[in-house]
Amino acid sequence: YRGYNLNLSELLKVIWKHLLFQDAILSFHMGIPLTINRSFINPSGLDDSDAYGKVTSCLRDAVDSLTSNECRQNDLLRIINKMESCHEGDLLHLSTTLRGLSEDTVLSDETCLVKIELKMFAIYAIHVLYDVLYQGTDNSNPDRELFYNGTMKYGVLTISHFIEAMIRFNKICVENANTPEIFVLVEMCQSLVGVSKIIFLKVYTCLY
């Protein structure tokens, strides 16, 4: 973004980062190729130093692999490993984050809800990848049981974290029922439910 002032340059980077993430989310849900081709992306703009960038990168790799003519098992396992080890396994400690939620944390940190939703979707994505591996593996393959266990593990984690998050937000809403902040908190709950709807249905169908 040469030639732009610093504020505009940073704003464009954030918008571009968000577009890449939403493109990956849409493609992942729909099972279609990415809309934004890699040839259009300046590699220097792909910042995966934070969880948002890391998950975006993993999702785009997953979509590329799943929509290619040859979806290789090793590629999916590499993506799963990358997501599981993201920020020293931070994605796998969402319960710790949820237990630490308080009114001050939720209302003072605008990115708090985004981080929770991002981690929930990342866990769900791992569930889907394990499910793809399980469904695409022959019954005689000894790894099939491992893939099944991965599918169940991350499916249960996804639903458990969703319920845990809603219970926590419900408690915060009750504590602030007579304050102006209740409207903001209700909007956060609606956002969480909206994000989790398709995830919950997919996992529930898989488990039951």
Largest sheet: none
Instruction: Give the helix level as a range of percent.
Output: over 70%
Helix segment tally? 8
Q: How many beta strands in the DSSP annotation?
A: 0
Mean pLDDT level: 82
Low-confidence spans = none
Q: Give the helix/strand class.
A: mainly alpha
In what range is the share of β-strand residues? under 5%
Describe this structure in words.
This protein is mostly helical and 208 residues long. Helices cover 71% and strands 0% of the residues. The chain has eight helices and no strands. Helix 2 (51-66) packs antiparallel against helix 3 and helix 2 (51-66) packs parallel to helix 6. The mean pLDDT is 82.
Short overview:
By secondary structure, this protein is mainly α.
